[in-house]
DNA sequence: TTACTTGCAAAGGCTTTGCATCGCC
DNA sequence: GGCGATGCAAAGCCTTTGCAAGTAA
């Protein structure tokens, strides 16, 4: 929690209860969470917060690079703590999302810069299929 | 247009005016289009169609594998004619979407199967950055 | 104090659904 | 004729916005 305070201060953000609890949640979960999950978590933690505020905090955290915004074809966004860049394996049956590192597509990015003169800033790579459980 | 009729019939779909015009549009555009673009196009073509119908046609086309559904962080879906699998370069400034083939990540998929025992069925790979125009 | 943050209510954008009617095969 | 497709209206989600009140620094 002390650590969270520091993180927020470093980002030049005022330390509020909601922000601290949400940051806690992201650090604990280490997975892409949706806005409604956060609202529910806040309720559990007796830190009820309006969803408008949650969305505003999410936006702020994104701007400060504390979290990343992403989507998995669900028609809504998910957010994950930044820092450990990786990709995701999305199970099409149960919705479980696993992490996967080492994508190693720098080569591809160079090729794109060369062939298309497109300046790549970031990429998004998701694999869809069946997780171990759901293959049975 | 004759060709479209055949495509629809092969998919066991009734040949309606809206379906033909929408299929035309996908074939002509060869790019990911959003639902509202389709509604506007249909108006232009004097084939005004309710958006509910457009969404239902899009869903049907997806189920039949005629088009693919995808997203680019816009908070809405886009759809593209199936067949020529490729990835996209999304300009963060002007929103332009270019194609890019040859992603060559079969190796990565094998690695995922081995390491994670996850059965990869498809993947989604998008690059975000600046297109040639917007780099100036 | 003062600028930033929040709550509440409302609206906005995209997408889906129910139901009666229409039209392709 | 029958089943599937469409139009219309409404609702459902997710997300954003305006404004007044609250609060961290």
Which descriptors would you attach to this protein?
homodimer; 136 residues; alpha+beta; Arc Repressor Mutant, subunit A; Dna Ligase, domain 1; 2 domains; 3-stranded antiparallel sheet; 3-stranded mixed sheet; DNA-binding
* Largest protein-protein interface: A-B, 38 and 38 residues
> Which structural class best describes the helix and strand composition of chain A?
alpha+beta
Identify the quaternary structure here: homodimer
Distance separating the two termini of chain A: 41 Å
The largest sheet of chain A has its strands arranged as 1-3-2
The domain tally of chain A reads 2
Element order of chain A: H for helix, E for strand: HHEHHEEEEHE
* CATH homologous superfamily identity of the largest domain in chain A: Winged helix-like DNA-binding domain superfamily/Winged helix DNA-binding domain
> Percent of residues of chain A in beta strands?
15-25%
Summed over residues and divided by their number, the pLDDT of chain A gives a mean of 92
CATH topology of the largest domain in chain A: Arc Repressor Mutant, subunit A
Q: Major β-sheet of chain A, in short?
A: 3 strands, antiparallel
List the uncertain runs of chain A. none
Summarize the structure.
The structure is a homodimer of 136-residue chains. With 136 residues, chain A is an alpha+beta fold.
Task: Please provide a written account of the structure.
The structure is a homodimer of 136-residue chains. Chain A is an alpha+beta fold and 136 residues long. Chain A has two domains: 4-81, Orthogonal Bundle (Arc Repressor Mutant, subunit A), CATH 1.10.10.10; 87-129, Dna Ligase, domain 1 (2-Layer Sandwich), CATH 3.30.1490.190. Chain A is 41% helix and 24% strand. A three-stranded antiparallel beta sheet of chain A has the order 1-3-2. In chain A, a hairpin with a 5-residue loop joins strand 4 and strand 5 (97-100). In chain A, helix 3 (35-44) crosses helix 4 (51-63). Chain A is globular. The mean pLDDT of chain A is 92. The interface between A and B is large, with 38 and 38 residues.
